[in-house]
Amino acid sequence: MPMLILTVNAGSSSLKLSLLDQGDNVVARREVEAVAGRFDAGTVTAALTGLPAPDAVGHRVVHGGREFVGPVRLDDHVERRLRDLTDLAPLHQPKSLAGIEAVRSGLPGVPEVACFDTAFHATVPEAAATYAVPAEWRQAYGLRRYGFHGLSHAYAARRVAQFVRAPRLVVCHLGAGASLCAVRDGRSVDTTMGFTPLEGLVMATRSGDVDPGMLLWLAERTELTVAEISHALEYESGLLALAGTADMRKVLAAAERGEPRAALALDVYIHRLRSAVAAMAASLGGLDVLVFTGGVGEHAAEVRRRAAAGLAFLGVAVDAGVNRDAVPDAEITGRDASVRTFVIAAREDLEIAAGVRAVLA
Questions:
Q1: Which residues are the active-site residues?
Q2: Position 354 in a domain
Q3: Where are the alpha helices (DSSP H) in 70-143?
């Protein structure tokens, strides 16, 4: 049955709405800004006014825990369970739930499906998902590596499969938040984010991997509170801390001008990125395809060039001219490369729509 699907992506400051037809063509896009950290139901209703009525709604939900390993139709029980998971994602889960409430008020009675950022990583083996901390902690508090950006990773892997048949992919989702995913035969087997989205790569304002002993030292030996440390790691670190700006475009421009802080920030970012790609390739036992997606991955040719230049030992190389002018979706593989490299537009809305159809078909 043909379905008109509204996809809902709740971010920290806005609610992104996309209306897709049966052929995944975009009928309309709307964006609603948060007011005082909340999404106003009236504003959402106004944004939907004049649009064709959707047959179903698909919501991006950041955390599904271990219970939700695929898209699921929303009902009272599911929503209660999602609220119970807020402790695992206190900065992100409330936004997802607020988006659900705001859209439902404007579209009462329309079937809703939750699609989870963590679900794609449910296939990660225990060796890659388990932290070496006391068993009672893991059992009592659900401590494990969940991974995030799963909707983006899943779509990118599915899209690349339309160009090339290759079993081993590393997908680089590089945006304000950033993570890598090792994909074997369409399934996630490793990823860089863990229990929270703080783990892994250097990001716009997030630190990525740091020594936990350093954080304990700060908590014990300085006047910084746990809340202050947490806030700094989430909002005052990453590129912002190194270069004074969280915008990769400005970092690249400043590094080009020879500004030392920006040059260091870019070097740190690329160093961590290359190291993580190599680690993901090790999880796969080799590499067939490297994929760049997300705002930085799609638009920062210099980041792609620098990353590839340090991965030649894996067989990665990009064509300088093709890489410079690439518009997603595109292949940028260099002439002598044994690993193919692609730039893929991030389309979480299409992955959400696919999940909605799978649940409601």
A1: 117
A2: no
A3: 76-84, 93-106, 126-129, 135-141
- Report the distance separating Cα 197 and Cα 325, nearest Å: 31
Q: Is the pTM of this model over 0.70?
A: yes
Q: What is the pLDDT at residue 36? A: 67
Is the domain of 173 the same as that of 84? no
- Contact criterion met (CB below 8 Å) for 118 and 65: yes
* CA 176 – CA 311 distance, rounded (Å): 23
Q: What CA dihedral angle connects 326, 329, 330 and 333, to 10 degrees?
A: 110
Evaluate whether residue 361 is within a structural domain. no
CA–CA dist 279, 311 (Å, integer): 11
The DSSP output letter for 332 is: -
DSSP conformational letter for 167 = S
Domain check: are 177 and 112 in the same one? Answer: no
Q: Are residues 63 and 192 in the same domain?
A: no
What single letter denotes the amino acid at residue 8?
A: V
State mean pLDDT over 6-24. Answer: 90
Cβ neighbour number for residue 256 with a 10 Å cutoff:
12
Give residue-wise pLDDT tens across range 95-127. Answer: 899 899 989 988 999 999 999 999 999 999 999
Q: Write out pLDDT tens, residues 190-238.
A: 999 999 999 999 999 999 999 999 999 999 999 999 999 999 999 999 9
> Would 155 be classed as within a structural domain?
no
**Domain limits at 253?**
164-343
Lowest mean pLDDT among 44-53, 165-174, 324-333: 44-53
120/223 Cα distance (integer angstroms):
40
